[in-house]
Amino acid sequence: MLLVVAIWACNFIAMRFALRELPLLAVGALRYSAAAVILLVILRLSEGSLGAPRAVWGRLVLIGLIGNTIYQTLFMVALERTTVGNTAILLSTSPLQTAVLGALFGIEKPSGRLIGALVLALAGAALVLSDRGLSLDAATLWGDLAALGAGTCWAISTIGVRALPSGLSPLRVTALTTLTGVPGLVFMAWPDLMAQSWGVVTPVAWSALTYSVVLSIGVAYLLWNASVAAVGPNRTSIFNCLIPLAAMLIAWPLLGEVPGPAQWAGGTLIIAGVILGRWSPVQLLSRQPA
Q: If we measure between CA atoms, which residue out of 65, 33, 62 comes closest to residue 212?
């Protein structure tokens, strides 16, 4: 999960380069289409088939629609209609939403310890992003609601992955849910895809897009789903709170964005919250050797 955090933090920088030359909707459609092809090829080569039991296809389609199509659409609306700070802070609520929804649906009941850890990490994420602030403005209201809705979609899809039968490998779940999220993204991006002059796109933008396809979707989604299957949605989703801290540390040398005292204090709270929520000394001591 620490690798996932690093990949997604670097993806913010990669997307800056891609979005300088390509429309938002086109980037989303290209990312997921290419990632779906790559994942399906790997699935076919490693596991010998591309199918899934008929009884779970409905849930796979629903996870793909909510966690990929709708999530990406809301995320892009948020980027267009509100500030980056608002988007990042509101998306950081997804771990807390995951815990609440998981308890409501009976998937995983959060402990008081975990709720405290989530609140601690969320407060830290807000501090890391406090230089941009969370501004309440009627002009950005729809973007703010879109960012909050994107966090909800990610929470729902994370819980949905946990509820799938254990016989489905993380690779199969990742490949099939990525595939089912593609049609809606392509449909919405079709005008931009047809209007784009592809010959003028530079190698820098293609490299950024390749990074996002292979690592940000392919590798990171696979590791995320594997973690959900292994330790549950709550202890996986809390790592989302680390992404603003990781992005801050990466942007420091690459973009010259020097963090201030509030960012360092927030980073300390995030790390404390993740450690508190992810690793329980009691659970570690109670594990029996395999």
A: 33
Give dist(CA 226, CA 249) in Å, integer: 26
CA angle 285, 161, 92 (to 5 degrees): 80
Q: What amino acid is encoded at 223 in this protein?
A: L
Q: What is the DSSP letter of 21?
A: T
Rg (CA), the chain: 19
Give the tens place of pLDDT for each residue, 255-272: 666 666 766 776 677 667
Which one-letter amino acid corresponds to residue 202? T
Selection from 4-13, 128-137, 141-150, 152-161 with the highest mean pLDDT:
152-161
Comparing CA positions, the residue from 278, 276, 272 lying closest to residue 125 is 272
What confidence tier does 283 reach under pLDDT thresholds 50, 70, 90?
A: very low
d(CA 131, CA 143): 19
- Report pTM: 0.73
Cβ neighbours of residue 133 closer than 8 Å, sequence gap 6 or more: 85
Contact indicator for 90, 144 with CB cutoff of 8 Å: yes
